[in-house]
Model the fold of this input.
Amino acid sequence: NSVFQGRSLLAEKDFTKSELEYLIDFSLHLKDLKKKGIPHHYLEGKNIALLFEKNSTRTRAAFTTAAIDLGAHPEFLGKNDIQLGKKESVEDTAKVLGSMFDGIEFRGFSQKVVEDLAKYSGVPVWNGLTDEWHPTQMIADFMTVKENFGKLKGVTLTYVGDGRNNMANSLLVTGSMLGVNIHIVAPDSLQPTQEVRDLAEGYAKETGSKNMITSDVDAGVKGSDVLYTDVWVSMGEEDKFEERVNLLKPYQINMDMVKKTGNENMIIMHCLPAFHDIETEYGKKIDEQFGIQEMEITDEAFRSKYARQFEEAENRMHSIKAIMAATLGNLFIPQA
Ligand code: CP
Ligand code: NVA
Done:
């Protein structure tokens, strides 16, 4: 049996550094198989439940296509389809789903719910984003970093924007586990909590990651290999819109910030969805209400030669495939 079999991915800290590295390399391998048209039905006959309390394009699409490519059957169960946590307890729902499905993806608000699903279902559970963590995104993101720089150790990834959301938490902790230097550039009130910093610092001591948490844009972005950002208002905190725009205006990725890295070989990443396009329905509404055309990233930067967000998005599929195949499949994976 592999060291992965039967395990859940609820947060990055559930795995070791070498296990994360293995998943990244396995993702690259599966991408290669996909590009060459070589079948990889490692999950033939398996059933996968996809639970979504929050909206999704990439995570839902990636889990669906990944499951099908692996020979498994994905079943989408949206928040209006099932009673999870409303008319039925998480425990009961988990027991029922675990008796029918071989693996469960969950996206929602509470980390406790994804943990309880794992506790009571008896099958591997994958966290497709909670308020606290976005671990499946991390495998895709560091896979993208490795594709671009040929290595992880010593690369400097700077996240600018809301430094307290799921993405900032996950990047700080995962980067620290992998020896990537993580800079979090955010206003004081939106910097990572002490708990997340302590967790990251523990890993950084082992791997030598040089992290920086600062509100100073110039100091934070200088020398960066990657500029990374995320929406200023995450799902579920829509009421904070005005406050966030005012706080985060100086932290927008634009061509001026790109220049400040002083690194012509830098890349831009964004987990997406991104707000840079006034032509969307949301964009029009925001423009009318706040007179703002661009938020966390300018359209110019988004479409520049540095941008890698669409490669990153595609990598969600390859990496979710690796996560599901490793934890659910019957592959022999040598102990790292
Ligand atoms: N990056 C990401 O998780 O995208 P979705 O919200 O579209 O799934
Ligand atoms: N921080 C964002 C990430 C979306 C993938 C959110 O939670 O809405």
About this structure: The chain has a mean pLDDT of 95.
